[in-house]
Amino acid sequence: MKPLLIATLSIALITDAGADIFKYTDPSGRVYYTDEPKKGFDYRLIIRTRPRTYKHDLKFMSGNKLKFNDLVAKAAAKHQMDPKLLHAVIQAESAYNPNAVSSAGAVGLMQLMPDTARRYGVTDRRDAEQNVDGGTRYLKDLLAMFNSNLTLAVAGYNAGEGAVMKYNNSVPPYPETRNYVQHVMALYRKS
């Protein structure tokens, strides 16, 4: 029981510091967690944290929100999504910094990972229009995948749909994901 407790405490400390967490299971079944995955091993991102600039970007959020309001409204209308939800996700992901980059390589307003960007045809993740369009389409697909369950769609946006499915269509037990869902839902209700 002690190793599990130590791993849990370590993960909690790392996520407070703002690092992405990766998991690797070796052929014998041993599980490893790290914020610096080694090349050549099949590490999976399990916890994605905010960009390092997030706290700084909060200072400019109001102005940037106004700057991108029309873009968000356009993407919401195009994909029949609630603009309030898009704003809540963007605020939680990047504080409206179109140049935000996480330590795991998520980029832009909606913090698209390279695979997600490719999946939705986003060729330039730093292009705000492409980024918001791709992130909106991903969120819409998550809502469809989880039968319009907003909580599960938001959890999937943070941890990946595979993690939500792995835990029998529930919010994964990762502290970062649970905090993220609560944060996005509070922002959504507030708007």
Task: Please sum up the structure shown.
This protein is mainly alpha-helical and 191 residues long. The protein is built from nine helices and three strands, in the order αβββαααααααα. The longest helix has 19 residues.
What would you note in describing this structure?
By secondary structure, the protein is mainly alpha-helical. It is 56% helix and 7% strand. The chain contains 9 helices and 3 strands. The protein has helices spanning 2-17, 54-57, 61-79, 83-94, 114-119, 128-145, 150-159, 161-166, 175-190, and strands at residues 21-25, 31-34, 44-47. It has a 3-stranded antiparallel β-sheet. Strand 1 (21-25) and strand 2 (31-34) form a beta hairpin. Helix 3 (61-79) crosses helix 4 (83-94), helix 4 (83-94) crosses helix 9 (175-190) and helix 7 (150-159) packs across helix 9. The longest helix has 19 residues, at 61-79. The radius of gyration is 16 Å and the shape is globular.
How large is the count of helical segments? 9
Structural class per helix/strand content?
A: mainly alpha
The overall average pLDDT, rounded, is: 83
**Unreliable runs:** 1-18
**Quick one: overall form?**
globular
Order of helices and strands: HEEEHHHHHHHH
Helicity range of the residues?
55-70%
- Beta content: 5-15%
- The count of β-strands is 3
Main sheet attributes: strand count, strand direction, barrel closure = 3 strands, antiparallel
CA-CA gap between termini: 43 Å
Strand order, biggest sheet?
2-1-3
Which value, in Å, is the CA radius of gyration? 16 Å
Family: Belongs to the transglycosylase Slt family.
Domain Transglycosylase SLT: 71-171
Protein name: Lytic transglycosylase domain-containing protein
Pfam family, one: DUF4124
